[in-house]
Amino acid sequence: MSSSDPNVRAARNATSTAGRRPVVAVTGAASGVGALLTERLAASEEAERVVAIDDRPGAETGAHWQIVDVRDPAIAERLREVDVVVHLALDLDLETDAQERTAFNVRGTQTVLTAAAAAGVRRVVLCTSTMVYGALPDNDLPLAEDAELRATAEATGVGDLLEIERLGRRAPRAHPGLNVTVVRPAVLVGGTDTALTRYFESPRLLVVAGSRPAWQFCHVEDLASALEFAALEKVDGELAVGCDGWLEQEEVEQLSGIRRMEMPSAVALGAAARLHRLGLTPSPAGDLAYTMHPWVVSASRLYDVGWRPGWTNEEVLAALLEEVAGRHTVAGRRLGRKDATTLGAAGATVALVGTAALVRRARKARRRM
């Protein structure tokens, strides 16, 4: 009888309810939050065994390593006898080609879901972001976890995350008995490099006139602990993860010591769109919405089962500022020290001076060709 047979999965679910500790597989286990989760699960007495999956081995010696690309259907063989898969092998790097990034993220998720069903896995945990709710001026503060996903694909990587969410909703219908849990962290901090963390590398915090920013952070350690709850089947459904509450823009400026530069919406969005169209910055104009409008979410479902964040928004912001110290970014593009010094000495705004300098550079390069 195949392990993908519904009767086999039902038997394994019955065993689980009887108290058997789950065997958990983690994809993307060699680095980032995947490595943190693998370490936590390997040390936990509540997990029977940890299967660490990546295209290279990681440092955790307490896990059983399986070296395989998550897009390879052969991964199904590595999931035999696994109860729960936590899929963290995602590429959200700003510098990755967008088409290559989407191909990896979407195909990898499709393959893992299909392979998990074929292997008789009873639960897959996916990790996206609270960005899928969308940053909109009429958002509630905070949003409920079951709020409509109103994001568009206009921001970096959000199109991939929305497609991953769609695949997660569809999988239980295609594979009855397969549970899919989705974990959505707020602005992730701790060894991460995103358009939102780069916002704090600028000499001025760009604020769009008339906007109402609200900042909610999530430290990778808190995300790993929330994923552990999901992996050990203490919670399921659609879960938000983040610090309690949020920070208003004025609080962020006071805590960071970085002054704001306020710009009209048309100027800020137009400059961002032009720079991205010219290939001079990795961030499309859609990223700006997440610095303009609130997208704070309540983590009530995790709270209901006893989870609590170990970090506050203030502490995560302080950690982020320490992490990005010495980096210089204009409009999402990293600058060398010489460029950053020149721009800072000019005393100009992040967006306007950045736009002018980068566009001039592009024009000069074209003239020399």
What does this structure look like?
The protein is an alpha/beta fold. Helix content is 40%, strand content 15%. It is built from 13 helices and 15 strands. The protein has helices at 6-17, 32-43, 75-78, 98-118, 158-174, 195-198, 220-231, 249-256, 265-277, 300-304, 313-324, 337-346, 350-368, and strands at 23-27, 49-54, 64-67, 84-87, 123-127, 179-185, 187-189, 205-208, 214-215, 217-219, 238-241, 247-248, 260-263, 329-330, 333-334. The strands form five sheets. Strands 3-2-1-4-5-6-11 form a seven-stranded parallel beta sheet, with helices on both faces. A hairpin with a 2-residue loop joins strand 14 (329-330) and strand 15 (333-334). Helix 2 crosses helix 7 (220-231). The longest helix is centred in the N-terminal third of the chain and has 21 residues, at 98-118. The chain is globular. It starts with 5 loop residues before the first helix and ends with a helix.
Estimated helix fraction = 40-55%
Q: Structural class, please?
A: alpha/beta
Question: Gyration radius, to the nearest Å?
Answer: 22 Å
Overall shape: it is globular
Strand content is 15-25%
Strand order within the widest sheet? 3-2-1-4-5-6-11
Mean pLDDT rating: 87
The SSE order reads: HEHEEHEHEHEEHEEEHEEHEHHHEEHH
Largest sheet: 7 strands, parallel
Low-confidence stretches: 1-11, 337-354
Note the total helix count.
13
The total beta strand count reads 15
N/C terminus separation: 66 Å
